[in-house]
Amino acid sequence: MNDLTYAFDLSHLWQVTGGQLILILAGLVLICADMAMMKTDEEVRSKRLGWLTVIIFGLTASHMMSREWDLHNTVFMGIFSADKFSIFVSIVMVISGLLAALMSIGYLQNNKVTKGEYYILLVYAVAGAVGLVQSVDLLMMFITLEVMSLAIYALAAFLKNDQYSQEGALKYFLLGSFGSAIFLFGVALIYGLTGTINITKIAQALSGGLYNNPGVLLAFVMLMAGLFFKMAMVPFHMWTPDVYEGSPSVVTGFMATAVKAAAFGVFIKLLFVSFSPILSQSGQPDFSSTVNLAALGAYWKPVVWWTALLTMFFGNLIAVSQQNVKRMLAYSSIAHAGYMALGILAANGEGRMGILFYLFAYTLMNIGAFGVVYVIDGKERNAQTLDDYRGLGYKYPALGFLMGLFLVAMAGLPPTAGFIAKFYVFSAAIKEGYFLLAALGVLTSVIGAYYYLRVIYMMYMKEEIRDVVRGQVAAPTVIALVITALGVLYLGILPERLATIANMAQQSLAMIF
Amino acid sequence: MNAPILTYVTFLPLFGVPFILAMSQKSDTGKNIIRGIALVVSIITFIASLRIYFAFDPSIAGFQFVEDHPWITNYGIHYHMGMDGLSFWLVLLTTFLTPLTILSTWRAIDNRVKEFQISMLVLETAMLGTFVALDMFLFYVFWEIMLIPMYLIIGVWGGERRIYAAIKFFLYTAVGSLLMLVCIIGLVYFHHQQTGQMTFNLLSLYGTSIPRTYEILFFASFALAFAIKVPMFPLHTWLPDAHVEAPTAGSVILAGILLKMGTYGFFRFAMPLFPAGSAYFTPLIITLSVIGIIYGALVAMVQPDIKKLVAYSSVSHLGYCMLGLYVLTRQGVEGSVLQMINHGISTGALFLLVGVVYERRHTRLIKEYGGIARIMPIYSTIFMIVTLSSIGLPTTNGFIGEFLILLGTFKVNKFAAVLAASGVILGAVYMLWMVQRVFFGEVTNPKNFNLPDLNIREIAYLAPLVVLIFWIGLYPNFFLNKMHASVDHFISQVKIESSVPSSHVQEAVNMELPGVTVALAKE
Hints:
Number of domains of chain A: 1
Strand content of chain B: under 5%
Helix content of chain B: over 70%
Shape of chain A: globular
Largest sheet of chain B: 2 strands, antiparallel
Number of strands of chain B: 2
Mean pLDDT of chain A: 88
Number of domains of chain B: 2
Strand order of the largest sheet of chain A: 1-2
Order of helices and strands of chain B: HHEEHHHHHHHHHHHHHHHHHHHH
Number of helices of chain A: 20
Order of helices and strands of chain A: HHHEEHHHHHHHHHHHHHHHHH
Shape of chain B: globular
Structural class of chain A: mainly alpha
Strand content of chain A: under 5%
Low-confidence stretches of chain A: none
Number of strands of chain A: 2
Oligomer: heterodimer
Structural class of chain B: mainly alpha
Helix content of chain A: over 70%
Number of helices of chain B: 22
């Protein structure tokens, strides 16, 4: 009885899932606001909704930072948890949404698609992503995964009269549904075998001896495949280039960061809590036997080893032959998933900390890069090929410099956040003795440097052959670009504060129960 | 003494950047102001670095002016800088050459002046940082930052095939240095396993004992990174491209300072960190150095382009530096460090001189010239002096360096010394032959009749180099004094352990390099 009142205690609900609640309610408010402003001009309305969205994300982020970060009692009804790890990833996604919302104000105007639904979809996409990362229950994971995905499918198709946008969105929808279905199948198998869908109870059940059961391995593979799809790991990456190229640039930037962060966050949570011995470090007698789960490493580590290698290799290699900048960035985002996978493979605290840092840094540089892409584009697909970037460094010095900065950061050169992030994940892998993979990985990043620098030499070393006129730069876009650029440099020079926070976050994984 | 002088010197160039950014480069006055700012800032940096000169105590073998602040503490990364007798002259060379280079670009670089001068100043900071960093991570950061301005300098202001050259330069360097990063991290974790302490501090990492296989592997990857930069035969192919396509200023910095980072990397990092690995590869490196000396000279001989000739001569000269370093005798190492400075001065001067005629005629082909000694007497005199210094004529700096290296080599490895000495003769052949074809004989090309001789600005940036050529040539002790203690310390650091597995070396040689057995058997 006591438990029941506790479970339905509203203040507890507010503490643990306050961020999500704000987002869901705000989405409803946005719908109402959109209808209430029926009379006003469409462009003005969209602008107002955009700023409103920015405020919503700001509120959400501050709620998470102030209330949820220091919680002691973190799990709500065995469904959602508000541990530091989930909150960290959630904040990354909210920041990604905030930056995307800022840029969208200008983007929608440039493309004359000033519809209010856009922001509502964006808010629900973030709500779904936050829910996904906060879930400690496989079924809730599936539901929130779908909430997030459906909103993003619609966002990807937002350019109604553009066939690439439609094509990409349809592909994403079909393949995404397939991926989700496989994930669901994995959930069903796990439930059948262990009798529970709570991730900590799964760990307990598995450590009792089930971990040797081939059925568990099959389920594990299916869960992995479903999430690898969202993370865009080779060989589940086929959808990425088409979708990233077709979607509106700002949505692509959001997708490449928030969805990736959500997928990595939930994958790490699932892998380390349910299938690794991490809970045994919590000191709770219930979980002392989860040490056994270390044996599972023999199965998943080689898989991640090869997936990481292939992802880094193919992502970088195919990016070299791309002529379209957005498509190139799509392949580069595949490659980045490969680097982050090194941190998973390392399976140590440094690795998880590295991934968290990487996700944060990647969010800044990737959204920044797509912001520049959309500004140069003017209207979607006006100027996206490498040839369009010729000589732009001198025509638009500020945009050229920003693009150069973001690309240098993605190439992993100091003094940018990209370098520090790569350093963290590589050093985590090296710590566990993966010398060969680390060496091969850095060699692929040389390939990466080649195509990132190619954009820079197009901008600074070639004469323009076509008169490219950039689109209007709206004030919020300027704010977003300045924030991302300063962030990329700040984290590159003084990474320590974020690294410490990320480290606290990853340590909290052992405390989910 | 307590003022963080190294930090000041390293980051002073960056102070010029905001001022340059604020200037407009539309008018000629604007461009001149930008150039002026860059020049003044680099001269201030040089003056600041003179304070290092006066405060430096040559009797101390260890590091001086040390600054140590925690940076990324959970990984034991510090902002740790310091200087000893080995890096002392390299830092001064950098601060000395940069203003001269900027002065030389006054007319040569006329488009995108702002971007160019910013690149130069950022490059100077990165170079200085590389020479004074004592933390592996900090070193790596500076080492990589250097790539971008150099990439831009070659790629934006270079010649026709500049993009090819810039990318080649970048990729070669990046491959080496990224593998090095992996091994730096590996080394740190080995250290961590043994002592329980995470640190990137170079001084603590010295003497970490690593399993032999890993030590050899780590040394190989460090050596790869540095050998590409030096460049050692057969990794030198990026150098002629980069030199030929780079603008004069780029070539001067590249030859004068960037190449020294390779050799500096060997004696500061690769050799003392992995003495056993270093010993294992000694025969290979000595062989490659000797091949580089002779090969560079032979290829230089047949070049039709003066700049390419000088570029290949760098391969040859840097071969001496590596040879001197690897014989591990006091003379050899001191000669090697001195030869780095010499090469910076004389090859830097040669590139500047080639730039002078290129500015006037827009060609660097030897056959386009001939007999210009009569038309440009001052130019020809300076060119001759620099040529003689590059050949190594007594009383010039080149002689001291090469002599010390050969002396040091002879003590240890007579065969290599004899072969290397032949490089001196070949050097005389290609340089003097080129000088003969360019400066003497009849003036055959009518375009050359009206070439103006050097103007004041050009003399101003060449004269200090000529003074240094004779200064080092006549009184080398002034320079060598500063490094005796550090060199002895370096040799003791590398040698003690390397004397143990010398039988291993012999075995390794027998297995891998039949050619080198001869060289070692003569010992």
